[in-house]
Design a protein that fits this description.
Shape: globular
Number of helices: 8
Order of helices and strands: EHEHEHHHEEHHHEEEEEEEE
Number of strands: 13
Strand content: 15-25%
Distance between the termini: 39 Å
Structural class: alpha/beta
Strand order of the largest sheet: 3-2-1-12-13
Radius of gyration: 17 Å
Largest sheet: 5 strands, mixed
């Protein structure tokens, strides 16, 4: 049995299938842990989600920002963003079943000693605290009135953690950190603007995983989301978004031994030019 974590798929169905062949994935024995953003921007979101749900007994995913956006779009609670490719998914007859499965996924997931999250953790959070905070959001997403949360989740404020936060402010910070975080300002607040490479990092900012005093440093955090960062392997972090959507590669990490497997992007998936 092998456990594989896979970086952002974003509707790149053909690349996903090539990667599954590359790792010789066996759904009867192996397990896939997807790092969020299963859908959107590539043109195979419906096919990706159908395959994942078909193999749901051997697949676990954490939620990414594009996954949450798809859920909000399906409920009529959000407008399409530039570059969205969700039309086929949202119009499909089985969309309610597929999106119901997606909505039940977690924001973070622990696999042995690793913590999986789409984007990152704020410096104040231990891994155990992150699991607890994620559960607060998951409880709301799984509740009958989940639409109220989806209607209010968009926004950049508050942009930093405070234990006294309550209500939607608290939930929004948790979601923004776990699905949108790349870099922090010196006070620990989130800089939502920067999406580039490390050498272009603003002087006053630091990657979330290099913030002084980061409380989750004793746990290996496996994440995606930051395609310009690319593959990064350290004892405390494993970054796996290698920009398949942008003409890069789709990456799988075998969690047991940290071996990396990659396949190139596939033009059939609607690979986008950087800057789209």
């Amino acid at each position: 049995m092998a456990n594989y974590a896979i970086g952002d798929i974003q509707g790149c169905y053909h690349a996903l299938q090539a990667l599954l062949q590359r790792i010789q994935f066996d759904p009867d024995h192996d397990r896939l842990y997807l790092l969020g953003d299963l859908v959107n921007r590539g043109n195979g979101s419906l096919a990706v989600l159908r395959w994942v749900v078909e193999h749901k007994t051997s697949v676990v995913s954490v939620l990414g920002n594009h996954d949450l956006h798809a859920l909000a779009m399906a409920e009529g609670l959000a407008r399409a963003h530039r570059g969205d490719t969700l039309e086929a998914l949202l119009a499909a007859e089985d969309a309610p079943q597929l999106l119901a499965w997606l909505r039940q996924q977690r924001l973070v997931h622990r696999v042995d000693g690793d913590l999986l999250v789409h984007a990152g953790l704020l410096p104040e959070w231990t891994a155990a605290q992150a699991e607890s905070l994620a559960a607060e959001v998951e409880q709301v997403l799984h509740a009958p009135d989940y639409r109220e949360f989806l209607a209010q989740m968009y926004g950049n404020q508050p942009d930093r953690w405070d234990d006294s936060l309550r209500g939607m402010d608290r939930l929004r910070v948790i979601v923004n950190a776990m699905t949108r975080l790349r870099v922090c300002k010196p006070d620990g607040s989130i800089d939502f603007r920067f999406k580039g490479e490390l050498q272009d990092l603003p002087a006053a900012c630091a990657p979330w995983f290099d913030m002084p005093g980061r409380q989750s440093r004793d746990t290996t955090v496996v994440f995606g989301h930051w395609s310009a960062l690319g593959l990064l392997q350290r004892d405390d972090v494993q970054a796996l978004d290698t920009g398949c959507l942008w003409g890069g590669r789709l990456t799988a990490l075998r969690l047991q031994d940290r071996q990396v497997f990659q396949v190139p992007s596939d033009l059939r998936d609607g690979v986008m030019a950087v800057g789209d």
